[in-house]
Every structure is written in C-alpha cells, then in structure tokens.
Amino acid sequence: QVQLVESGGGLVQAGGSLRLSCAASGSVVSINYMAWYRQAPGEQRDLVAGITSGGSTNYADSVKGRFTISRNNAKRTVYLQMNSLKPEDTAVYYCNADIKQLGSPYMNYWGKGTLVTVSS
C-alpha cells in the first residue's frame, strides 16, 4: 500500500515562510511527476507547483517567485518552500504523485492534506 504523508503546515503571519514536505511510503518502485495542489474553502483544488523526476518544474502564476518546489528522489520526498506568504495562500495543501509499484503501472496518489493558514 502506497501512502503520501504531508507535514509542515501551520499558522504563519503574512510575509512569513513555511516549508511543506511530502514523503511516499510503501512498496514504491519509482516516482514520476510530483506536485502540490491547494484548495481554499469553497474553491476548487488547483495546481500550485509540480516537478518531474528529472527536476523540471512548473508553477502557478500566483506563486511564481515566492514558492519553490524540490524533491529528493532517494528519500521519495517532495518539498514546497513557501516565502512571502499572503492571506490568499491560505488553503489545505495536498501532495500528489505518479507512483509505480512492482508489477503495476504508474498510478496517481493523493495525500490527505496539510492546512496552511496565513494571517494578515
């Protein structure tokens, strides 16, 4: 059974920083694309940032220049460094990854989410 477990959320003042982590556990053979999404109350879940196994990244326009996604393939972990946080960044942040288990094709998995609250 594969699991994605996020950590690092919390309450921070506007202008502050947080670092989110997401680790994959279980019988993981390979991880392809990894990403962070977020969902604010009453809103849809949107892509924040993504990173390929080779390190190519993409970002939502709203976070470019403030957030940085990275990964450690050996640790099966993806990170999201969030700087210059704004109240509108408040949301539940979800980890997402395409993971291959032995004998199975790549499948898409979600973490349970971690809450980030930015106070003004």
Features:
single chain, 120 residues, mainly beta, 7-stranded mixed sheet, 4-stranded antiparallel sheet, elongated
Can you give a write-up of this model?
The protein has 120 residues and is mainly beta. Helix content is 0%, strand content 57%. The protein has strands at 3-7, 10-13, 18-25, 30-39, 46-51, 57-59, 67-72, 77-82, 91-100, 106-110, 114-119. Strands 2, 4, 5, 6, 9, 10 and 11 form a seven-stranded mixed beta sheet that branches. It is elongated, with a radius of gyration of 14 Å.
Instruction: Write down how many β-strands occur, each being a DSSP E stretch of 2 or more residues.
Output: 11
Secondary structure class reads mainly beta
In sequence order, what are the helices and strands, one letter per element? EEEEEEEEEEE
Radius of gyration: 14 Å
Shape: elongated
Oligomer: single chain
Distance between the amino and carboxyl termini: 40 Å
Offer a concise description of the structure.
The chain is mostly beta strands.
Topology readout:
Elements (H helix, E strand, L loop, with lengths): L2 E5 L2 E4 L4 E8 L4 E10 L6 E6 L5 E3 L7 E6 L4 E6 L8 E10 L5 E5 L3 E6 L1
Parallel strand pairs: 2-11
Antiparallel strand pairs: 1-3, 3-8, 4-5, 4-9, 5-6, 7-8, 9-10, 9-11
